[in-house]
Amino acid sequence: MGGHRDGVRSVRNAAPGAVYELAHAIHEIAHSLAFGHNRPLHNKLFGFFANLPIGIPISISFKKYHLEHHRYQGDEKIDVDLPTLVEAKLFCTTGGKLVWLFLQPFFYSLRPLVVRPKPPSPMEVINLILQIMFDMLVVKFFGGKALGYLLIGSLLAMGIHPVAGHFISEHYMFKKGFETYSYYGPLNWITFNVGYHNEHHDFPAVPGSRLPEVKRIAPEFYDNLPHHDSWSSVLWDFVTDPDIGPYARIKRKNQGLDS
Fold this sequence. Notes:
Layout: H1 2-12, H2 14-30, H3 40-51, H4 59-71, H5 85-90, H6 94-115, H7 122-142, H8 144-157, H9 165-171, E1 182-183, H10 197-202, H11 211-217, H12 219-222, E2 227-228, H13 231-240
Parallel strand pairs: 1-2
Helix pairs in contact: 2-3, 2-4, 2-8, 7-8, 9-13
């Protein structure tokens, strides 16, 4: 039933969902899975291209912080995927958590600048310049409403949209003691199998198209782990369950390691 709800809502939200597929593509590219690890420049250039309809430059910056999330998952100083203490305290009620979901794109984008600021790299500057040029061309040939459509679609896709449930489903502690969860519902078909998250963290160099095969050949490692079947249900439970919220994460003390 939950999977059916996911499917219906994804049709109703097709525009932001389409934009979000590009964000999933950028995730694959961040792991050098488009052209392989021996062609880093090809992957970065393709990331620039996939980034364009999103409206804001994220491709290079996302990779910079996301690979640290894999290497130092849960580290209180390095893993910027962890909500800050301010977020956990301000958005701990049912209404607060709902607001937090709507604002999640802003927290996800701005949190690294506060928690772990880094100077921009030359590739990030190029990413920014290309994105500004593309946005100006969209405005010139299609008008400001067209650019607004892309930007609003991006914000909706990463906020309360059902597919954005993957942000919550992956590492928020729905069952005490378990840090990472996979999602095995039908929306994997259109999201590069991003729901296979335990498998992805175990084998980040395996492309999303092959992650179901990882689960199939190693059932003893995955079949008995708690998992999700509906991202819509994940969002509902996150908002309504008082035991789950921005604070429901496993955090580790920083050991003085740096990337």
